[in-house]
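Board notes (copied after class):
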Amino acid sequence: MAKKTRGKGEDTELRQLALELEQHLTAIRQQIRRPVEAEFAKGGLTGPQRSVMQALFQSDGRSLKELTAQVGLAHSTVSGIVDRLEKRGLIERKPNLNDRRHTRIIVSGEVREFMEKRYPVIAAHPLFDVLRAAEANERNAIVKGIKTLRRLLDKQH
């Protein structure tokens, strides 16, 4: 299928439309993330601590060396973070069954349960509230528009 040639004016309009769309998507993302960010703020974790927690949650555990490489911080910094998170009960050190000199660092059962059960509810809550308040035709238009945008982006890449 041949691409339709566009004039300079149409390209300018499309760039403005793309910028406007990107701004709307950014604002939507921020509003959706607000309850999640508020919940995480209750935990009082620093940015580096959150990076370590995220890396550990997305794995079945890491050695200190692996964790250091993944988060891109100094070994001593990650070691201190791990010590502090362990004292708070957010992570655990488990002996490596293949080599007892090394340990695997994992998130605690409580953290894993929160992330698997509570987090999805918190993350979906703003959308749930909006969809509940919307008319059926508005809900359908939202879903259709988002699916169309995703399909077109997927096709592009």
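Comment from the instructor: The first strand starts at residue 91 and ends at 96. DSSP finds six helices and two strands in the chain.
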